Amino acid sequence: MNRQVLRSGISAVAMLVSLPVMAQESAGEASDDVIVIEATIDAASSVLEFPGAVTAVDAEALEARQFRDLTSLSYAAPNVQLETVGTFKGVSNFAIRGLGVNSSIPSIDPAVGLFVDGVYMGLNAGSVFDTVDLAQIDILRGPQGTSFGQNTTGGAVMVQTADPTEHWEGFARIGYEGPVDSGRGTGMLTARGAISGPITDGLSFRVAALKSDDNGYFTNQFDGESYGAANTTVLRGGLKYDKGPLEITGKLEWMESTGDGAATHNNGLFARDTFEISVNQRGFNDSENLFGSLRAELDLGAGKLTNIFGWRDYRQATRNDIDSSPTPIFQSDTVTEQEQWSNELSYAVETGPLRLVAGGYLFHQQIGYDEQRDLSFFGAAPQFGGGRQDHDVYGLFGQVDFDVSEILSLKAGLRWSREEKAADITYVRTRPACSVIAGTCPFTGERVPGENNGFSDERSWENFSPRLVATLRASEDANIYLGWSRGHRSGGYNFRITQPDAFEEVSMMLGSPAFDRELVDSFELGAKWQSPDGLVFLQGALFWMEVDNIQREVVLPSITAGLAQSIYNTADARIKGLELEAAVEPADGLSLTANLGFTDADYTRIYQDLSGDNVIDAADLALELPRAPRWTYGGSASYDVALSDTKVLTANIFYQHRSRYAYTDNNWGFNYASDMLDASLSVGCTECGVTLTVFARNLLDEVQFGADAGLPFAGGPFSDGDDAPFDPAPNAGTFSPINKGRVLGVELGYEF
Burial of 419 by CB count in 10 Å (0-12 exposed, 13-18 middle, 19+ buried)? Predict the structure, then answer.
């Protein structure tokens, strides 16, 4: 795709809305005196002043968790899952409060938005690779329709990389981690570091780098070799100009990752609570990402003008053994290419009890996707297809905050957006070799008499996203808020159509080949309190969401396609629940946190067959919503003790429980309940800056899958010839990319 990003992006206007959240200490929740990221929409100075449910982790807390990528925080907050889909390395599969995506199809918009340095990532792919030198990560729960440049229905994950500094600082760390259980593969070596300092008066720089060499956590029983290798390199550079009323920060990051295909378990060949893998096709995953951001802030005295420009170019090629067995039955090759740019411009002004923000947003991306399926085991010729799409977003917003009195504040916001998508789709079917990205696959005409090659189509969606919040300041240390917000996720097109007859029949009924937008109305009542001495912090929220036209990828086994993956607006749903979080410092050096999340998610209306029995009835209505575990709860403890005047011992332990939950809409694919236990122990020298850390992840060796799709073949001794919701024995085989089990590691670090 074209890399000429500056063609018109500078002239775009956009909304800057970066909801602030409170930084965390190593124990978890932050205290009231920690300053949050200042934003134009909600410039709260602490979590007490922010009317919404948030979890934030600063750089110190990230190190305590031995953070490697965003999945390191998947068990860090109630009602939150930050997982990868597993099919392709680096593809996010995030879900918050039961709303998320369970697909690797690149044309599906994220339900949980990822924002890096204020820039929205328009593609789930390339979101979850090893990273380095982060300042803070904030997890916002619930729709963010008026809060960012792009609508999100489930929530938002805000990643802030470290800025250049006017003083000299830096770090270097090297570590090794790997399996300790017999029958597993080998370990991973990681080196990372950063340096920052002044260049001249008002101008500073920062450079960061990471190199990780993972030789494969699993053992492939097919050949006895380690499997799951991934080698990743990240380079990031930044400049910051800060003088007078003008501040400009620019960053450019390059990432490359190469390695094996998906580490996929087969629940028909092996028990689903084991880490056994046996695949004949090793496959590969090659990814490259180039991302740049430019943020400018101008203090005009009466107000502040902020502009954020972002650009990204991402490419990925994969090969996977989809049958997940030692027999060469089903292999798939894919290529994904994406280029995006966006610009946000906003103006914020405060006068007396009134605060006003107004601005605009422009986003453009091009996505191309090629897929080849090899089912030659059945004597079939290769299948080729995919899609390409232009996607444009235009947005305007305004928000007013008014202090009615010393104890009551009102907030009203409104965002208008228009999204346009134009797509060319080639059905993934048996045909001569071709590439949608290169323009050699046909979109028109017939593949064979009576079956079309594909289609070209374009469609637009206009949305209004309101937000209303009332905040009652019961005291200086306590707030109660009540809010309503609406979020939208635009419709789109399926790049992976393998059943054209069924697809065209549904499209004719709906009057369009595009699936429609998803809409969420969210009502939230919350309260927050902090003790006057700052040693105790409590927050809780009750939420109720009405979800219309849920966008889902319905996955069913197919003997001709291997897997049939259809994207529809499947249902309406009601999701309600609660979240409670607490942080306390009962003694010097000791910090404790606890959290509880409850989600009650039910369908209220069904539009498509979900159970796979070709009828829409009570069986569909009784199914559980995917990615909506009923209970999450856990906590953490951190203890610092001085061993001498210059030596400090730090111990951290993190625990989180997650209930069993469905992965697929028919509930055939699922994950067992899990109890995730991580820990670390470090000894640091405050005088010399050296720290030695021993750490462990997933100490209880829990088995969790990034996907769990049933296949019509490749079964084994654990298959029973029948599919049923939450049945540990599948009909035949499964494609179930598996996460790592128990890991132990050691790291040596130096900071100055």
Answer: buried
Eight-state DSSP code of residue 63: H
Mean per-residue pLDDT, 586-606: 96
Burial (Cβ within 10 Å: 0-12, 13-18, ≥19) of residue 730: buried
pLDDT tens string 112-170: 999 999 999 999 988 888 899 999 998 999 888 666 667 788 999 999 999 999 999 99
26, pLDDT greater than 80: no
At 162 the three-state DSSP class reads coil
- Please, what are the domains in the chain? 44-751 (2.40.170.20)
DSSP-derived 3-state class of residue 64 = helix
227, 259, 262, 444, 490 from 216: Cα distances, Å = 4, 9, 11, 44, 38
Strand partners, 597: 579, 632
Where in 27-154 does DSSP place strands (E)?
Answer: 54-58, 80-81, 95-96, 99-100, 112-116, 119-120, 134-141
Residues 6+ apart with CB under 8 A from 468: 410, 411, 412, 413, 483, 484, 485
Query: Cβ of 320: how many Cβ atoms within 10 Å?
Result: 28
Residue 554: predicted pLDDT: 92
The mean pLDDT value for 452-476 works out to 95
Q: What burial class does residue 167 get, using C-beta atoms within 10 Å of its C-beta: 0-12 exposed, 13-18 middle, 19+ buried?
A: exposed
Task: Encode burial over 50-62: b for 16+ CB neighbours within 10 A, e otherwise.
Answer: bbbbbbbbbbebb
How far is it, in rounded angstroms, from Cα 504 to Cα 299? 55
Query: Are 121 and 33 contacting, i.e. CB atoms less than 8 angstroms apart?
Result: no
The pLDDT of residue 246? 97
Q: Cβ of 114: how many Cβ atoms within 10 Å?
A: 24
* Structure confidence by residue, pLDDT tens digits, 167-182: 999 999 999 999 999 9
Nearest to 270 by CA among 625, 725, 719: 719
The pLDDT of residue 262 is above 80: yes
Conformational region of residue 113, where left means phi above 0, alpha means psi within -120 to 50, and beta covers everything else = beta
Query: Higher model confidence: residue 89 or residue 192?
Result: 192
The length of the chain, given as a count of residues: 752
DSSP string, 589-657: TEEEEEEEEEEEEEEEEE-S--SSSSS-SHHHHTSPPTT--SEEEEEEEEEEEESSSSEEEEEEEEEEE
- 19 by DSSP, 3-state: which? coil
The pLDDT tens digits for 60-98 are: 999 999 999 999 999 999 999 999 988 898 899 899 999
Query: b/e for 346-382, b at 16 or more Cβ within 10 A?
Result: bbbbeeeeebebbbbbbbbbbbbbbbbbbbeeeeeee
State percent of the chain over pLDDT 90.
85
Return the residue matching tokens 């300042």: 135
CB atoms within 10 A of CB 502: 12
Residue with tokens 């654990």: 718
Q: Is the pLDDT of residue 406 over 80?
A: yes
C-alpha angle 193-197-203 in degrees, rounded to nearest 5:
135
Give Dmax over CA atoms of the chain in angstroms.
83
Bridge partners, residue 352, by sequence: none
Residue 11 has pLDDT above 70, yes or no: no
Give the chain's mean pLDDT.
91
> 257-290: b or e for each residue (b if 16 or more CB lie within 10 Å)?
bbbbbbbbbbbbbbebeebebbbebbbbbebbbb
User: Contact at 8 Å (CB) between 586 and 638?
Assistant: no
Amino acid at 120: Y
Name the DSSP class of 73: G
pLDDT at 21 (0 to 100): 30
Which pair of tokens denotes residue 29?
A: 């929740």
229-239 residues labelled b (16+ CB within 10 A) or e (exposed)? bbebbbebbbb
